[in-house]
Write a structure and sequence with these properties.
By secondary structure, the protein is of the alpha+beta class. It contains three helices and seven strands; from the N terminus they run βββββαβααβ. The longest helix is centred in the C-terminal third of the chain and has 25 residues. The N and C termini lie close together (10 Å).
Amino acid sequence: MGFFISAVSQAEYVGEGDNSNSDDILAVRTGRNYERFLDGKQLGLYRFKGQDANVEGYSGIGLEEWTDILSRIVHRCGMWDLGSDSYGLEFDGVFFPPFYHSGAYGPETCKRLAAEFAAHRDKVAGGIAKIRPKKDFLYGGKDGNAWWLSLYDQWQKVFEVGSDSGFAFFR
């Protein structure tokens, strides 16, 4: 099973609902107990007038391993060692919201996450080379570090786009 991670900007609420047949209208929904990540926005249908961004697809196992590596670089321990009851990472208070649910994250959460990704970029870029040999199965060919950092940059872009009055989606 793969994950689809995307963002859109400049959202306008158009009404209640959980499904749309229009390319420029998306349903915003989230898992139970995750409404706090909507930043006060309501569930329903939104028209998006701005840009969009995506993270290239990978499996749940790949996402878990990628996030564990990120945790090891930033926290110097694995993500499961953090003891989070939300199955997400909380670097500097936010960094990664829980991702083990399908749902949306509002513009303020996206803004904080984009800033945290930017703040940790140099540390992550320096740390990946130290961890990569131990996790080589995740990377193909000689450009494994470049691929890993490109995913990091894609995550940051998703949160930057979502921070412009939009949402980031995890499905």
